[in-house]
Design goal:
With 589 residues, this protein is α/β, with parallel strands linked by helices. The protein folds into four domains: 84 residues, 2-Layer Sandwich (Gyrase A, domain 2), CATH 3.30.1360; 162 residues, HUPs (Rossmann fold, 3-Layer(aba) Sandwich); 95 residues, no CATH class; 179 residues, Isoleucyl-tRNA Synthetase, Domain 1. 50% of the residues lie in helices and 9% in strands. The mean pLDDT is 94. The chain binds arginine.
Length: 589
């Protein structure tokens, strides 16, 4: 089904064509001044350049033609050559109605290929507790996957675990210091190693920060950690066995954290998965002269002639033979190309890693590891800061564990829910489920509504806000619509098949028509925040409509059933929008 904007652009485009200019000049958009008109077209300025005539003259001609169109009203010329127009209520009603009947809610497919898109997101390092620093990478990435899938792309989301770096070496050294008698450290032990992990996730959560602090404070210890990392990478059996335990307990805890956020990966791959392809990859690059020795290290120089400053090479092997972050990322590209032949790879990773991805992409192109037709993209995100403007910390100054943040959110949600007495007539399991959904909506929406690339301030007090532009407010409107539809159905009012638009519901009809363009924008720029804006606008328009209109008690049955249809269309679109953001609507609130 065509979108309303495309439908109108075709009409206006045809009027431009009859003036001898490109149909593209007729692109229509929602008006910046809804008080003057519903839609506008600014193409006369562009057309004027190619025709050498004043934009107002062209715009006036176009207005004259469009004036005769029975779908349009109030076509007028404004300012230097803007064309303002509105549409008849009949046309608007027709479009909302087809949205309701269309399983995709009127959103066309945008995908231009059926090759895979791989989204690399989440990316936690194993052995550490997941903390608020992982929030953005997980929830923005999840939303990007959902948006691209709905746009029609074949998407594979990959968690790309940090499971092979120095942080593992640090943990190994610290464990050896604490438990020197473990068989994993005995070089003469020939196995088999125990099935049971010697430590739990709770132990790890304490061991990792201690190890990291100790290594940072003591160079000799750090050297040991590096050596242990190299030994692990050389697959020393005891280290591999212990590493497996660390992996298992970490992944188990990660899965819980991700599921709590409604984040689900297709691939649970990590840095360790590509270790075997690194040596042949590096050998090949050296043989082709693409990787070279530099002060004992092996690197790929990626400085280009256009760079005015020094530009660091991508390091493949450090002097001690250890592989680097860039080495595994390059090998991961080799692996993905071989196994999935992707058309695009999108990395939803902290913007502060921009240089790394720039080096990586340059190296991948220069070495032809990736073909020119494959897109590589770093969809970076800004930092979540505390109210002091520095990266978010707990009140005590530490990093906040994600689980603790969720728990705080749930407690706040329960408090709020008890204010409405919702807790009185449902069982505890349901109440906990609602509280969880509300808490996650509060946290995720507070984050996702910010432009991906911008830093933003996360204020814990946001969790207590249920009004205004918040996740809970939008969920609440969705729950209200749902319950209204239920009541309507109970009194026999199904959605009508013919509607009239009226003064109280016109704005809601128009808001619904924005969805296809909002989706297109989100898919093009990987920006969930435009969907947050849309969800909020829908919720507000619905609320305004609901307060001014007595839907269920309306005596005119056609009107009543028309409104039920409008409510259903609104609910469908709100539910879809929230789903694209990774939010779930509770049964009640
Ligand atoms: N593990 C990395 C970190 O904690 C993020 C991984 C991002 N993905 C990637 N392919 N480099 O910073």
């Amino acid at each position: 089904m065509t979108t309303l904007i495309d439908f109108l652009s075709e009409k206006v485009g045809a009027a431009f064509v009859s003036q001898g200019v490109d149909a593209a000049c007729g692109r229509v958009q929602f008006s910046d001044r809804p008080d003057l008109a519903q839609f506008q077209c600014n193409g006369a300025m562009m057309a004027a350049k190619s025709l050498g005539v004043s934009p107002r003259v062209i715009a006036q001609h176009v207005c004259d033609i469009l004036g005769a169109d029975k779908d349009l009203i109030n076509v007028s010329l404004a300012g230097p050559g803007f064309i303002n127009l509105s549409i008849t209520d009949a046309l608007l009603a027709r479009f909302t109605f087809s949205q309701l009947k269309d399983p995709r809610g009127g959103v066309p497919f945008f995908a231009d290929t059926d090759r895979q898109v791989i989204v690399d997101y989440g990316g936690p390092n194993v052995a550490k507790a997941m903390h608020v620093g992982h929030l953005r990478a997980s929830i923005i990435g999840e939303s990007v996957c959902r948006i691209l899938r709905f746009a029609g792309y074949k998407v594979l989301g990959d968690v790309h675990l940090g499971d092979w770096g120095t942080h593992i070496g640090m943990v190994l050294v610290e464990m050896k210091r604490r438990m020197p008698d473990l068989v994993y450290f005995d070089e003469n032990f020939s196995g088999p190693y125990p099935d049971q992990s010697p430590i739990t996730m709770t132990d790890l959560e304490e061991i990792y920060p201690a190890a990291s602090a100790a290594c940072k404070a003591d160079e000799a210890l750090m050297a040991l950690a590096h050596a242990a990392t190299v030994d692990l990478q050389k697959k020393r059996p005891g280290y591999i066995a212990l590493w497996r335990h660390i992996m298992d307990i970490s992944i188990d805890s990660m899965r819980k954290n991700f599921a709590a956020m409604n984040v689900f990966f297709d691939l649970w791959k990590g840095e360790s998965d590509v270790q075997d392809i690194i040596p042949p990859m590096v050998d090949d690059l050296c043989a082709r002269g693409l990787a070279v020795e530099d002060q004992g290290a092996i690197v790929i120089p990626v400085k280009s002639n256009d760079d005015t400053k020094e530009y660091p090479p991508l390091i493949l092997y450090k002097r001690d033979g250890a592989t680097m972050y860039g080495t595994t990322d390059l090998a991961t590209i080799v692996d993905r190309v071989k196994n999935y032949n992707p058309q695009r790879m999108v990395y939803v990773v902290d913007q502060r890693q921009h240089l790394h991805f720039d080096q990586l992409f340059r190296a991948a192109r220069k070495t032809k590891i990736i073909n020119d037709d494959v897109e590589l993209l770093h969809a970076g995100f800004g930092t979540m800061n505390g109210t002091d403007g520095k990266p978010f910390k707990t009140r005590a100054g530490g990093v906040m564990k994600l689980e603790d943040l969720f728990e705080m959110g749930r407690a706040k949600a329960l408090e709020k829910l008890s204010e409405t007495n919702l807790d009185k007539d449902i069982d505890d399991a349901e109440l906990q489920d609602i509280a969880h959904k509300v808490a996650i909506a509060a946290i995720k929406f507070a984050d996702l509504q910010n432009n991906r690339i911008a830093d933003y301030v996360f204020d814990l007090d946001r969790l207590t806000r249920f009004e205004g532009k918040t996740g809970p407010y939008i969920l609440y409107q969705a729950v209200r619509i749902k319950s209204l539809i239920k009541k309507a159905q109970a009194q026999g009012d199904d959605a009508a098949s013919e509607w009239e638009v009226s003064d109280t519901d016109r704005a809601l009809h128009l808001a619904l028509q924005r969805f296809p363009q909002v989706m297109a924008l989100a898919a093009k720029n990987y920006t969930p925040h435009v969907l947050c804006d849309h969800a909020f606008q829908l919720a507000q328009e619905f609320s305004a409509f609901y307060t001014t209109t007595h839907i269920l008690s309306e005596t005119d049955q056609n009107k009543r059933r028309g409104w039920v249809g409008l409510c259903q269309a609104t609910y469908n679109q709100l539910e879809k929008t929230l789903d694209l953001l990774g939010l779930e609507i509770p049964a009640r609130m």
